[in-house]
Amino acid sequence: EFKDSLKYWDIPIQNWVVADREGNIGYFPFGRIPKRIGWDGTLPVEGWSGKYEWQGYISYDELPQMINPPAGLIVTANNKVVEPENYKYPLTFDAMPSYRADRIYELLNKSEKWDVESVQKIQMDVYSKQAEYLMPTILKAINNTDLNEIEKNATSILKKWDFYANKESIGATLFFLTHKNAFEMTLKDDLSPVLFNLIYNTTYSHGFFDKFLSENSDSKIWDIRGSEKIEIRDDIIMLSFKNAVSELKEVFGERVEEWKWGKVHQILFAHPLGTDKRLEKTFNISGIPTSGARE
Cα–chain-centroid distance for residue 291? Predict the structure, then answer.
C-alpha cells in the first residue's frame, strides 16, 4: 500500500525508509529520474542533435529498492544507494562518502534491542570514520626526525586520538585542520578559483579527495606549482600538518593542550537581519563550541 502510494511522488527523488506493524521494513528512493542513454548528466552535451534526449523516466519498478533485507536493518545517510556498475541507468553522483552510513551500521550491529536513550546516543555519536580511514596514511607521512618540540607533542596527541570529534578533543583539531590544508594545497593551484570554491563548498565532493589521499601516493597533482622540488603525497601531508600546528600556535598559543576542537568548530545561528554588519551582534548567536564534524 505504501509502495503504491509513492507512485504519485513526482518531485525530485527522496529516500523513504518505512516499517509496518508486522515488522516489515523497506527502502524506496522514489521520484522521477530521467533515463539517460550513453551519458550521465555530469557534463554539458550537444542539445541540437537529439542524441542526448531523455528516454522517458525510470519506472518505479526499476528504481533500486529493498524490502526485508537479510541483515534485518536499512541504513541511508546521503550515501550511494547503489554502485554505478551495478545499475543500468545513471542514478546520481551527488552522494556523501559512506562514513556516516558505515558508522550507523557499526552501532546498530552492536545490539538487537533499542530504546529511546540508546537511539539518542547514535544520533549524537561523533566518532569520525573519516579519521579512522585517513589517519594511518597521515601518521605514516609525518616524519618525527623533521619536527620541532611542539610538532612532536602534537604528533603524540594524534597517535593517541580515539577518533571522537568531541569539543574537548585536540586530536580532532589537528586532524581536520591538516586535512583542510592538504585539500587546499593539493587542488587550489590546479583549479580555477571558481571551480575550487565550488568543490570546496560542496560537501558531497570531499569523498573523492579522501580516496585519492589514501590510495595515490605519487600522482602529479600533489606537486606544488612553482616550487623547486617535485612534491608527492607525503610531502603535502607533512607540510599541511606543519602549517596546521603553526596556525594553531599563532591563534591559541604554544600550549597544545589548549587547541581544543570546540575553540575551532563553532556553530552560528544566523538571523536574516544579521547579514547587516551593523546588526549581526544583535541578531546572530555565534561562538558556540560544538562537537561533530563535516560528515
Answer: 15
Is pTM beyond 0.85? Reply is yes
Find the DSSP H helices in the chain.
Answer: 2-5, 99-108, 116-123, 129-141, 149-160, 171-187, 193-200, 206-215, 233-252, 261-264, 280-283
pLDDT digits (tens, 9 = 90+) for 209-245: 999 999 999 899 999 988 889 999 999 999 999 999 9
Bridge partners for 76 per DSSP: none
Alpha-carbon gap, residue 130 to 98, rounded angstroms: 9
> Are the beta carbons of 31 and 14 closer than 8 angstroms?
yes
Q: What secondary structure does DSSP assign to 25-36, as a single string?
A: EEEEEES--B--
Q: 141-151: buried (b, 16+ CB within 10 Å) or exposed (e) per residue?
A: bbeeeebeeeb
- Distance between CA atoms of 57 and 214, rounded to whole angstroms? 37
Instruction: Pick the range with the lowest mean pLDDT from 172-176, 262-266, 278-282.
Output: 278-282
Q: Distance between CA 253 and CA 260 in Å, rounded?
A: 12
Residue 39: phi, psi to the nearest 5?
A: -155, 160
Q: Does residue 225 contact residue 189 with C-beta atoms inside 8 Å?
A: yes
167 vs 289: CA distance, rounded Å: 6
pLDDT tens digits along 15-62:
889 999 999 999 988 888 888 888 888 888 898 998 999 999 888 888
